[in-house]
């Protein structure tokens, strides 16, 4: 931490130094020409309380220096993490492609989509059983029945299942049925839920909140990891900005930034990231070119009848086209498509 | 819903009309000079599925017309809602001032603060027992012990207690100890939690998410209300923008907008809204002038030692100054300070 | 400047220290537990080049410490600046209220509005002669003729004239006809224009860009002042965010932040800030409560016929109501309404 | 335009209909279950005034339907535009790569960089002679001398020159010396400047403002084109968001959105878009994969000594690496690198 003083008044500076030492750190003063800054030396990650020094007289601001994550960062683990789910590999030299409908709507729809995903070359099937909807009057998902239908789709195709979990008490049931648990953007800072999935042994897809910083995403990964589960997959899915041509603004720079700061695999969701099916393929390609380890896309046999997110869902033919267009790109970035037998 | 067509192609238009009718609405075409628009007439609030028509050929965009909330809106209930908690009134002609520390840190601290709040003229005591912290390594609150200390503070001062609840399974315990339950900004779209507090009989302070629109805030209120609990207090606490001089950007325009759209009481939290103690008083005054029904401010006996949020906490003398400066303002806006006997 | 090192590698640190000294500053190293930081001591305001050190190996980031403005800041001039225009005072104990239409549309309209503003209690008349419009096909203003009509309105009412200038070569003509020159939000970083108005002797209303930080606003004021013109009036008019219920998000916290950082008068424009006439009065009151020295509001005799901005314009009766509601508030904040004889 | 009524009150509706007809449009009413909407049929692009109807009693909002651009849009010109500058082609099947320093600093630096760009495979040389700097105390460019040095660099290498123009009265001089004129992000809505470059015969690189929507970018292109100059190259360079790990948030979705809405070539500037040299290569690749027609990157022989933007400038070796990594990608997207003899 760096404490920037408004004044050069010795009494104010002494008071700050005394507090820094009282909290167990060493104070180090740099007398500048117009500003004096005081460094607090010690373990940065426990220094949260020093932020409160901003309320002392003469203090202009307190500036943290170190990134506050440990387990998610590159300092302890410098090698890229690679996870396995059944036959599928996440991270490393394989591109992991999760596809499927926003919601599991009925048996036919999910089985048909699973087949499309499998045949098209997808690595895993997504589908919401529990749906976080903005309106209490919207379809809230098939819930437990949805989980059973997803399991049936796995049995039919061999595709691992990715599905969202909304509350700590659903975690047990979802863990039983799914291969990968998803934390949605709205729950990225639902810490009780993060802790609950941190106690499971399944990989977690952690979606970035739509107004969460990259730092906060990594801190949420840290929550999961600090409970024991090290298999966190980070997922950029668009942030909120003033632009309205797209549903969100897909922040692809987050991919190289996350790869630099963290050893965890990074996915991109161009469906939520853009909100329009015709932007999904170009942004999927851009994501892979930027270094993403995986993609999550919405696919629906008949998007115009989808209970939700039809506008951003790919039709079967478009999904196949996407995979075909991605193939030459993969070879350039040194990845191959994971095949599911 | 209004469906804007990209083309004037009859086949495309017929296809959209057919779908609208299949979903149970009446289609109404306006042939424009360059664009054709199709209105879908019927109950707007169930029209979510029509958004998926954007995936049909020839459709440029689908534009919702009606606000999607009912219970939170002015259409069913046009009068301002007023709630009561013990001797305190929330909404109407009283200004409701909740004050206290970010976290309950220990017995002494919370009792001392409760006394300061009571003597200064505050209406209720806030204090976090369960704390949602960005870092898993930060102080997470005293939890159940914190609830007991808050109860003790109420017994000592008569102030009603406002405290945050983080998970559905905490709701019972917190409801037992607190007078008002708070849903924090990060949980504004934690729908399971909204439903859980919707089943209690205590008023709910619902904080606007830092990434949430005014519409989404009202839809989250709708979640609580649709479970039976009509006592929702909306709280603006700052949204995220590019500006870094303040911790968040306090969106005071949300006050008159919310008062126009909804009958629910509206509070403002200038502490989180600005992040700096020296901005709290001016923004508290601005909030009252804009028509707010209440304020939530952080007060700490010794902010520089606070476990969290010290930089934005008022010292006791500043809190008293705030109340004094608010008094003449209240008389102008037709409100009086709620006195707690 | 503080240079934060990624490593503790001596060679990297020596290289940074050498560059700091080569650029004429003193380097001061703090060896931390995990990070080493290097302070560069010397005149902070000329240190821009040190930012480029981020490209050296081992450097994580470069953090500026000092605010980069001088003339606009409180350090050289701690007293609030007060300007005079004819009989009107801007800043200090007077509230300065500029009102009028978005555009000067014709003689009748501007004379009628001037009378409304004068009778209602406004201090100055605004009206655009040169209009910066998003579309080249929209009404671009009456240009020079508009300036003549504004002058006529001043002669008829005694109200000083505020009007926008768009290019450096218009400055002379506008200066001749207007009492106060306005730099619009889109031109806040049009540095050639800032320098041009910096050479005039008329007060400048400098509107904050819709995605400009408070710091950048003050740096733009610095441009004007560094050319000799010290009469800059800062104007908050809403910034761009994700919220769509309002045209912009009026950042009222900017008022106390600007008053803390700068001695210049601060105005607020609740018309552009909200985009809806029914939000103008509450936000005008909030602005005054927050400490604003003035207001700029749009008034039109028949808003529904306005060439531009009708949706956010006050009708005459509403304008009078606003002034009436502001009067008791002014007495609380220690200001009185400027009367124009 | 669609006018959404708050009420079903016939008097209010009649009033709106009368105004619509008075302004020369046809009104078309859809009576909904809870809302009535009124369509105004006629040339959408001249309908700006209808927005003012929002101030009439009973009107909830006015919703524009049609995109307001003509010349920049796909409706009149559906084929992709391709421009030529000397031997270079912009748009179509060639990738156009502009590279060079932020500022022209001296003869040696610009000639050395020009050689690096030419040898590395760049198509054009960029370099600022007139610099828009946030601070009046920063280096403002070599001005006319800078233009001469750029010309010398062109003579030495054959590379066309791209340089920024800041004011209408510089346009003549810059047009004389440069091959392509650049409008910087801060000037995207400097309409006088847009009109001035619209009268030249040189291609214009129009950078998206950091606060500007995609729509506004196209409207600014429309300004240039409506003056006669149809050679506008759109450039995405990052928008402002809450994220601070990157200088701006590069909005790559803007590439396919712009390609869909407009026939104009689209470039991406990953240097300003990210602010960090180590993010430039991945984002350059992502941009090309997303369909960009060109790139603009900052290159400096010794970034740590750059007068400005050193942190985001590529060293010569990195620039060559970028081109090498782009080559296989180009063949996938069907483009080849433009060679300059």
Description:
The structure is a homotetramer of 341-residue chains. Chain A is built from 10 helices and 15 strands. With 341 residues, the first copy, chain A, is α/β, with parallel strands linked by helices. Chain A has 2 domains: 2-63, Phospho-2-dehydro-3-deoxyheptonate aldolase, domain 1 (Alpha-Beta Plaits); 83-337, Aldolase class I (TIM Barrel, Alpha-Beta Barrel), CATH 3.20.20.70. Chain A has an 8-stranded parallel β-barrel, surrounded by 7 helices. In chain A, strands 2-3-1-4 form a 4-stranded antiparallel β-sheet, covered by helices on one side. In chain A, helix 2 (107-120) packs parallel to helix 3 (144-157) and helix 5 (191-198) packs across helix 6 (214-226). Chain A is elongated, with a radius of gyration of 23 Å.
Task: Annotate the secondary structure layout.
The structure is a homotetramer of 341-residue chains.
Chain A: E1 2-5, H1 10-22, E2 26-31, E3 36-41, E4 59-63, E5 83-85, E6 88-90, E7 94-100, H2 107-120, E8 124-126, H3 144-157, E9 161-164, H4 171-177, E10 180-183, H5 191-198, E11 204-207, H6 214-226, E12 232-236, H7 254-261, E13 266-268, H8 270-274, H9 277-289, E14 294-298, H10 316-333, E15 336-337
